[in-house]
Amino acid sequence: MTQLQTMLAETPFVSYSYAYPHKSAYRPFASPLPLREIWESEDRTDLSLYVHLPFCEYRCGFCNLFTLSNPQTDLATQYLQQLRVEARQVRDQLPDFHFSQLAIGGGTPTYLEPDELAQLFEILQQELHTSPEQIPASIEGSPATLTAEKVTLIRAQGVDRISLGIQSFDEQEALHLGRPQKRKEILQALDLVRSAGFPTLNLDLIYGADGQTAASFLNSLQQALAFRPEEIYLYPLYVRPLTGLGRKQQQWDDHRLTLYRAGRDFLLEHGYAQHSLRMFRLEDSTQPHDTQYCCQTDGMIGLGCGARSYTSRTHYSSEFAVGRSSVAAIIAHYLEQEPESFASVDYGFQLNCDEQRRRFLILSLLQTTGLSRDFYADTFGADVLDHFPALEELAEHGLARITADTIILTSTGLERSDTIGPWLYSEQVLQCMETFQCQ
Description:
The protein is of the alpha/beta class. The protein contains 17 helices and 18 strands. It has a 9-stranded mixed β-sheet with strand order 10-11-9-8-7-6-5-2-12.
């Protein structure tokens, strides 16, 4: 059996390939790399800016994000002060950047108090000369942390997309996910968001919770559609180290696949177009901004502890952890850093030519638009099948359609995205991920 055949015979849910390589493949660099050196040969005209706020009101049972729940009272204030220091250093080192989009994530950015949120936007404007009014800007939030004052402030700043982690409208299912939220709380938050007039509302829902059925999952989707969100993300429940949830395998895998198909079909029937395994967008909705940012080729600057940055050759961030004490220690180290330390980076992954091609391939192929063979050839100087002849096997298994112009996953291939992505990982990345000690 080939490696793909072996993987297809096992779980469809191997790993979410939202980025490549995953941060568990990052390691300390032999010596610190100056920011100017990393970025000197990069096109800095269309960058993405990501700001990480690693705080939440509580940690959900499935969460393996870099975040600290219920931190000490003044920690957010200290964090914002250091975020300003970091932003100033980035500006000084890379004065000719231009951002095409902004994302504020975490954690839960709306955990911040209104005055802290206002300070965050002030930092972006004063230190990076970046305003959400000028570029597509998104912020993540949770129903428990939203208030009318926060929603009004965020919208007034020009943020045009807000993403809420709902996960389930069923209170019992939410409890099984380690998420003690109330349905009333969700509805109040959604009313606030819709009243504020955000052009794009995204809702995240999870399938695979204990006791969840196709009927209960569709009921959550039906309740979500009452607010006509422009985007919906459907996430399979993953159980990862240090997240507190334990699971049996095969029956659970079959159940998740059944729920995915039910949710997918429901959304397609109600006017949503599928863009990836997880993302669905309302077909008659419009984008508030026309952005030229392309995740396959353009870079990203991340600010804050836990934020990922990347150029074509170098990906970097702070160290990664999940356990509370380890996350707290990494944040404490971030707060203690001297300003000049932000002028260089010491932890990440350097991509050789093969890794750059794999990243481009994975980020393209796992979208419903697929991979443009001309775009790939223009970027890397050869046809993708010359570099990755094993892709032919996807077509042999009915997982992709290969034409002279594109390679596009079929519906069967799309639902195996979390298998196909890891199948394309290099041996070096896989080895680093397997030996990573999650703390």
